Automatic annotation (TrEMBL):
Any one GO CC term of the record: membrane
Top-level taxonomy: Eukaryota, Metazoa, Chordata, Craniata, Vertebrata
Biological process according to GO: myelination
InterPro entries: MAL, Marvel, MARVEL-CKLF_proteins
The MARVEL domain, residue ranges: 1-122
Main subcellular localisation: membrane
GO molecular function: structural constituent of myelin sheath
Protein name: CKLF like MARVEL transmembrane domain containing 8
Matching PANTHER family: CKLF-LIKE MARVEL TRANSMEMBRANE DOMAIN-CONTAINING PROTEIN 8, MARVEL-CONTAINING POTENTIAL LIPID RAFT-ASSOCIATED PROTEIN
Topology within the bilayer: Multi-pass membrane protein
Length: 126
C-alpha cells in the first residue's frame, strides 16, 4: 500500500519534467509489481510446487535490493524537492512521497522483511 502511495503521489505531478522523479517512479512501480507478484505466489502457495527455487534466498535478495534502491530513491526524492515550488501541488506531493519512501524503506523492507528473511535464512543454515 505504501509503495502505491509513493507511485500515485509522484504520478499526480509533473514528474516527467525532472529525470530524478522518473527514477523514483521506476523504483516504486518496479517493486510494487514485484511485491504483488510475490504476494500472489505466496497466496496460491505456488512456492511449494517450485521447490528448485531457494525462496528464502530470493526473499532476502528481493528485500535487500528493495531496501537499497528505496534508500537511493528516498534520498533522490528528498534532494529533488524544489523550494521554488513551495506551496504548490507538486511540492506537497513530492515532499509526501519522499517521506513515504523513507517509511517504506524503514518500516517495510528493511526492518520487517529483510530482518525476517535473514532470520529465516539463518535458521535454514543451522
Amino acid at each position: 500500500v505504501l509503495g502505491l502511495l509513493v507511485w500515485t503521489l509522484i504520478a499526480g505531478t509533473d514528474y516527467y519534467l525532472f529525470p530524478t522523479f522518473g527514477w523514483v517512479m521506476f523504483v516504486a512501480v518496479f517493486y510494487w509489481i514485484l511485491t504483488v507478484f510475490f504476494l500472489i505466489i505466496y497466496i496460491t502457495m505456488a512456492y511449494t510446487r517450485i521447490s528448485q527455487v531457494p525462496w528464502t534466498v530470493v526473499g532476502l535478495w528481493f528485500n535487500g535490493s528493495a531496501s537499497v534502491l528505496y534508500l537511493i530513491a528516498a534520498i533522490v526524492d528528498a534532494a529533488s524537492v524544489d523550494k521554488v515550488e513551495r506551496g504548490s501541488h507538486n511540492y506537497n506531493s513530492w515532499a509526501a512521497s519522499s517521506v513515504s519512501s523513507l517509511l517504506i524503506l524503514n518500516a517495510c523492507y528493511l526492518l520487517k522483511n529483510c530482518y525476517l528473511s535473514l532470520k529465516v535464512r539463518s535458521r535454514v543454515l543451522i
